[in-house]
Amino acid sequence: SLVSVRWYTESTQNRGKMPRKDAKPRGRMTAYAFFVQTCREEHKKQHPDENVVFAEFSKKCAERWKTMLDKEKKRFHEMAEKDKKRYDTEMQDYVPPVGEKRGKKRKQIKDPNAPKRSLSAFFWFCNDERGKVKGANPEMTVGEIAKELGRRWSDISPELKNKYEQMAEKDKARYERDMTAYKKKPKGGMPMPPMAPKPESDDDEDDDDEGDDDDE
């Protein structure tokens, strides 16, 4: 059975040192994240010398969370709501250092014509399983879903894993073909004829001419 949980909250809410004034606010936590953290701290108190296998521990926490009554979860939802208010308040006062912008980091500009990268066997597996995990555990964050997918991947049968590995190999071959073709094209992605010397005469009008008067 899972570790019995004593619902202590203040120690988890006020953990750690006071943040520096210029430090970016710590991200907010979900109710489920507070629950898992509480379980881990309680387990560590009871078994200080035991090595915890996170995947197994996370699975037990997820199973326990699914069977809990709403009134048992209420305290964790209150903790999450309080943490959200804390985060929102801190973010209002937060001034990013010079060169850093609020919100997400800027992504590197990519060529929209570049071939879509191939997916690994694990990513193909995630595409099939992510919806199932999210449906069964609506409280989970993106990070928690990723951990659960990792646990499921480690538990699948060799036959099923082989299926996804074949999908990955097929996609890799597709990507290599597309990249070979892409590299033969100029940066714009459209094939161009070989460059010819520009005529010196202005007799003929073409698309490159700005106008009839080129003399200054």
From TrEMBL:
The keyword DNA-binding applies. It is found in: Chromosome; Nucleus. One of its GO terms (molecular function) is DNA binding. The keyword Cell membrane does not apply. Residues 25-95, 115-183 bind DNA. Keywords: Chromosome, DNA-binding, Nucleus, Repeat. Residues 25-95, 115-183 form the HMG box domain. Pfam families: HMG_box (PF00505), HMG_box_2 (PF09011). Residues 160-181 have a biased composition (Basic and acidic residues). Residues 95-114, 160-216 are annotated as: Disordered. CDD domains: HMG-box_HMGB_rpt1. Residues 201-216 have a biased composition (Acidic residues). GO terms for cellular component: chromosome; nucleus. Belongs to the HMGB family. PANTHER family: HIGH MOBILITY GROUP PROTEIN B3, HIGH MOBILITY GROUP PROTEIN DSP1. This is High mobility group protein DSP1. It comes from Anthurium amnicola. The gene is Dsp1_4.
